[in-house]
Amino acid sequence: MVGLVIVSHSQKLAEGVRDLAAQMAAEVPIAVAGGTGDERIGTDANKIIAGIKEVYSEDGVLIIFDLGSAYLNAEMAIEFLEDEMKEKTEIIDVAFVEGTVMAAVLSSVGKKRQEMKEELKELCVGKMP
Amino acid sequence: MSINGHKVINIMDKIADAMEENKLYLTELDAAIGDGDHGLNMSKGFQAVKEKLKEDEETNIGEILKKTGMTLVSNVGGASGPLYGTAFMKAGMEVNGKEEINIADFERMLKAALDGIKLRGKAERNDKTMIDAIEPALNAVSNAIRQELSPKDVLKAAADAANEGVAFTKEIVARKGRASYLGERSIGHQDPGATSSALIFDIIYKEL
Ligand SMILES: [Mg+2]
User: Fold this and answer.
1) CB contact under 8 A, B176 and A41
2) Which residue segment(s) compose the domain that B7 sits in?
3) What digits encode the pLDDT tens for the residues B113-130?
């Protein structure tokens, strides 16, 4: 199964969205990376790296982010990964709540990363810079 | 004129002090058009850098800048973390292995830093970001070097151009970051990221 990492400026927001997705697809590995290292509003590349490692498998990982710096830090996090993990980890541009739920469902039915990305295009909101 | 690693660390300390002193100012600028965390973010980030480099005997300037960048990435929190982090890491790569740098190195470092920021933020000049301070500063450095001005005057030209760039950000609409949600309403406010960049150029000029 493709693992998911939810990156949000707020840990509560990330956990809330994970709870929603888990209702539909409890078996999917979902990590949250919310807030800064010292628990403020913001994002943290180190937390994102830890999240990727937590849910990584050969099927790879998709990262879903809320806005702004979440994307920059997610990109930064991917750059710090070892090559194999780096190739199989991607950031997607989707509506934060709907996209996470749909991604979890798609992963739970065994879709591959590429297929998931294709299907999730309909929820693209154009927030990647 | 050339400077060594010790001096570079000293400059980082002074930048940390300047961010601390301007914490409220940067936060107010950010509160007007963004999320109001830029002062705290920058001061936290550079305090962590100061702490990290304290009593560091490192002489490789590339390594010092890499440590600075990594520390900023881990401690800033907002978009400025990955952006300034990338800038310092890219600048460091330009001078890796060097124990002394001169004004020509500074020009190359600045160019690498600016390219890194543009790539990371997918932003260009006139988007109302730190690029509006840094790109004019780089151009001023290149011109001043071509005119064979003294290194001190080169750095003064950089600081002046950066500050003019900051003033110009008041005139334009934000197209990146949280401020972009404000659209036209962002006009009249200066960009906090450009402001913190200009502060850094001020310190580099003053300290050399
Ligand atoms: Mg901010």
Assistant:
1) no
2) 2-207
3) 999 999 999 999 999 999
Retrieve residue A123's tokens. Answer: 């929820």
Other Cβ atoms less than 10 A from the Cβ of B61: the count is 27
What's the CA-to-centroid distance between A70 and ligand 1, angstroms? 12
Distance CA B163, CA B206 (A): 14
Mutate to test the interface with A, among B27, B30, B33, B35 (most CBs of A within 10 A): B35
Q: pTM for the full model?
A: 0.93
- Chain A residues in contact with B86 by the CB 8 A cut-off are 76
State how far Cα B22 lies from the chain centre.
Answer: 14
- CATH number of the domain that residue B167 is part of: 1.25.40.340
CA distance B5 to A57: 42
Answer whether B37 touches A (CB < 8 Å): yes
Domain count along chain A: 1
Query: Residue A95: helix, strand or coil by DSSP?
Result: coil
- Whether residue A110 lies inside any domain: the answer is yes
B84: Cα within 13 Å, side-chain hemisphere: 29
